[in-house]
Design goal:
By secondary structure, this protein is mainly beta. About 0% of the residues lie in helices and about 55% in strands. It contains no helices and eleven strands.
Length: about 120
């Protein structure tokens, strides 16, 4: 059964850092494009970062460029999101998504709270 489990969320002060992880129970993980999304209360889910199967070219939302880094470890079936210089507007539920051949799998999300 395909399953994505996010972890690493929590409460952080503005300017702080967090590292999110997404462990995937999925065959051929290395062939999936992995993404991180986030959703703040009352807002639509938005794309944060994308990493292709080879991991060579990553894509970021303008709002997180230079602060967030997406990476993957295909040997561990895990994708990461390193978040630095966090801002109030980065708060929300962060979801990872696996995509291959137009089929998407989502995790349940991990909460990130930015508060002083």
């Amino acid at each position: 059964q395909t399953q994505l489990v996010e972890s690493g969320g929590g409460l952080v002060q503005p300017g702080g850092s967090l590292r999110l992880s997404c462990a995937a129970s999925i065959s051929s993980f290395s062939m999936y494009t992995m993404s991180w999304y986030r959703q703040a209360p009352g807002k639509e889910r938005e794309l944060v970062a994308v990493i292709p199967p080879g991991g060579s070219t990553t894509t970021y939302a303008d709002s997180v460029k230079g602060r967030f880094t997406i990476s993957r470890d295909n040997a561990k079936n895990t994708v990461y999101l390193q978040m630095t210089s966090l801002k109030f507007e980065d708060a929300g539920v962060y979801y990872c998504k696996a995509r291959r051949r137009l089929v998407d799998y989502w995790g349940q999300g991990t909460q990130v709270t930015v508060s002083s």
